[in-house]
């Protein structure tokens, strides 16, 4: 009686037709979920060992390294959660989670682009400052801000990839104007 009512609820509310197939898919989903937990933990452990061997802690704060490792771990978790939900076969839940999960890799990619751009900008600024060529201080700041700007634009396009291109371009133009005015005001106030 209870199994029959559970089967009728699953059939009417969720769209499950065959209870045996649903239970098998549920078991596979649980296995996928556990594999994701183990794989996320294992990859985080391996990356932590690589970071320790490379002695990156000497040049980077531990909080940034911890943030990076947690983002990687949770990205793996979310990937396997999505795979497990696909295995269960509930379309409403899968569609909602899939649309939500598109945002996370986009933001992670944008953060990586910003970090890489900042590293390249600082390296080139220091390289120009060490060369002591004519006008090195102005040139180093121009290169620094230009590299940051280019990577910021790519990061925004990556983070907002699910939006309309015209909307993203308008946002980039507005942010360019605001940031340019802020940098100019800061430099004028500094002098």
Q: How would you summarize this macromolecular structure in one to three sentences?
A:
By secondary structure, this protein is mainly alpha-helical. The chain is 87% helix and 0% strand. The model has no long low-confidence stretch (mean pLDDT 81).
How would you portray this structure in words?
- By secondary structure, the chain is mostly helical.
- The chain has 2 domains: 1-94, no CATH class; 102-191.
- The chain has helices spanning 2-14, 19-54, 62-88, 91-101, 103-131, 136-159, 165-190.
- Helix 2 (19-54) packs antiparallel against helix 3 (62-88) and helix 5 (103-131) packs antiparallel against helix 6.
- The termini are far apart.
- The mean pLDDT is 81.
Uncertain runs are none
Query: What's the mean pLDDT score?
Result: 81
Q: Tell me the total number of β-strands.
A: 0
Please compute the radius of gyration using only Cα atoms.
24 Å
Q: Given the C-alpha coordinates, what overall shape results?
A: elongated
Strand content: under 5%
Number of domains as seen in the coordinates: 2
| Largest β-sheet summary | none
């Amino acid at each position: 009686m209870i199994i029959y009512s559970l089967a009728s609820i699953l059939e009417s509310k969720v769209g499950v037709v065959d209870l045996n197939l649903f239970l098998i898919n549920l078991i596979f989903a649980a296995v996928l979920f556990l594999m994701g937990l183990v794989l996320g933990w294992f990859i985080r452990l391996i990356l932590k060992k690589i970071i320790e061997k490379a002695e990156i802690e000497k040049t980077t704060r531990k909080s940034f390294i911890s943030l990076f490792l947690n983002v990687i771990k949770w990205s793996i978790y979310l990937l396997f959660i999505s795979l497990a939900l696909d295995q269960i076969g509930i379309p409403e839940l899968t569609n909602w989670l899939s649309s939500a999960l598109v945002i996370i890799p986009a933001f992670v990619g944008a953060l990586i682009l910003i970090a890489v751009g900042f590293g390249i900008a600082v390296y080139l600024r220091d390289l120009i400052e060490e060369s002591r060529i004519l006008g090195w201080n102005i040139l180093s700041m121009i290169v620094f801000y230009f590299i940051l700007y280019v990577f910021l634009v790519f990061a925004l396009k990556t983070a907002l990839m699910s939006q309309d291109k015209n909307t993203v371009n308008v946002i980039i133009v507005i942010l360019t104007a605001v940031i340019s005015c802020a940098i100019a005001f800061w430099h004028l106030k500094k002098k």
